[in-house]
Amino acid sequence: MANTDFPLIFERGKAGRTGYSFPEFDVPEMDLDNEFDRNYIRSDAPELPEVSELDIMRHYTALSRRNYGVDSGFYPLGSCTMKYNPKINEDAARLAGFSHIHPHQDPKTVQGAMEMMYDLQSGLSEITGMYDFSLQSAAGAQGEWSGLMMIRAFHEANGDYKRTKVIVPDSAHGTNPASVTVAGLDAVTVKTNEQGLVDLEDLKRVVDQETAALMLTNPNTLGLFETEIMKMAEIVHKAGGKLYYDGANLNAIMGYTRPGDMGFDVVHLNLHKTFTGPHGGGGPGSGPVGVTSEFAPFLPKPVLTKKDSLFVFDYDRPDSIGRIKPYYGNFGIYLRAYTYIRTMGAEGLKKVSEYAVLNANYLMRRLEQEYSLPYQQHCKHEFVLSGKKQKQLGVRTLDIAKRLLDYGYHPPTIYFPLNVEEAMMTEPTETESKETLDGFIDAMIQISDEAKNKPELVQEAPHNTVVKRMDETTAARKPILRYHK
Ligand SMILES: *Cc1c(COP(=O)(O)O)cnc(C)c1O
Fold this sequence. Notes:
Layout: H1 35-40, H2 53-66, H3 87-94, H4 96-99, H5 111-128, E1 132-134, H6 140-157, E2 165-169, H7 175-182, E3 186-190, H8 200-206, E4 211-216, H9 229-238, E5 242-246, H10 259-262, E6 266-268, E7 289-291, E8 303-307, E9 310-314, H11 331-367, E10 383-386, H12 388-392, H13 397-406, E11 413-414, E12 423-426, H14 434-453, H15 455-459, H16 472-477
Parallel strand pairs: 2-3, 2-4, 4-5, 5-6
Antiparallel strand pairs: 1-7, 6-7, 8-9, 10-12, 11-12
Helix pairs in contact: 3-11, 5-11, 6-7, 11-14
EC number: 1.4.4.2
Catalytic activity: N(6)-[(R)-lipoyl]-L-lysyl-[glycine-cleavage complex H protein] + glycine + H(+) = N(6)-[(R)-S(8)-aminomethyldihydrolipoyl]-L-lysyl-[glycine-cleavage complex H protein] + CO2
Family: Belongs to the GcvP family. C-terminal subunit subfamily.
């Protein structure tokens, strides 16, 4: 890594040095007789480093090099689908006709933007086998919540107030039970069996007249396809419950099967995962929600529809769960997803799933020779290894993850799902070459050797990153967010 010990910009300043020039002052001066001005004027000047333009440029460039992203290296963070973000998407998102419009504009003047959104809704409906989509929600988690609110509204519209339980597998992503709670419902756990799939007997045991829904991702968080999904749908539907699909793992099945065909009633997708929106660092996301026709009246409003030859936002939706996001959601991410879908085409999207699954299985079969693999069958787009062999040597999964940083790789998702000891959830995605996968395999094998021969090397990692091993508890509880000399 280049020049990691550069002095921080705060220590670099020299009194009187500047890197900016302001235009002539052409607004009224501060008026100290005016109460507003008086209240908002600060008493002393801020202590800012006085630096040249070149110094500040180097400061920010150096900081950017401390960062790690898909454009800098392999990023097998399971469940997050850190695939390549095609740069043509960025061109589309920056087209002046899209980037210079305003959400308060008269819809008649932004018909092209609305048509793009409408086409995206239709494309997502086709990909998932759903009847209609709302793009509004800003993340998968918000999609989950919106979908559950619709399911709740549906049951309440039928006078079915007792249906408050949502069944969630013990391997589920943490947002699933959290969304259930925020939607005012109660999460009930269903167990995973020895094959890593939902235990049907346990499902039959927990389903009852109070079941609002079963919430599931397929393939599940272990990267395994729930082969009994049709039976599960039947069990839940027979009891009057609905099926919610967490679409975060769509990258494994796109073009081959559809949640709509598996019996799901409400789904969300993560445009920033499957559909190449750049993410990491928390956003911007987009978590569109799709529904069967039965749920269409409950979609968030306004609903984008076509009347005659005009695209309109329909606010006249008495059963809608309401607006869930200001304006129309993260429009820039829609454009990226739309561009991706149109450039890939139906055949291209199918290939995505194929290669995602092929890459994951290649990685899994090579790595199971050094790391323990709790579920032996073929995986879909990701798999979960266990670091329990290494733990017996005193090297934890956290240590392995930190050591990977020394080799220049982002680690897999660790300690999730919770039902696998020392879990390493690994998702290579379809966009990585065999050479990149081989490089990662070599690093993982080397780390396994180090765990046997030089465990302290792994236990004390990382050694060549800017920030060394952190005290993560203190960092989370008492973060130091300001610069201190
Ligand atoms: C990422 C993810 C979510 C949450 O999606 P966000 O867009 O991060 O809110 C939910 N479930 C699974 C399985 C995920 O991987």
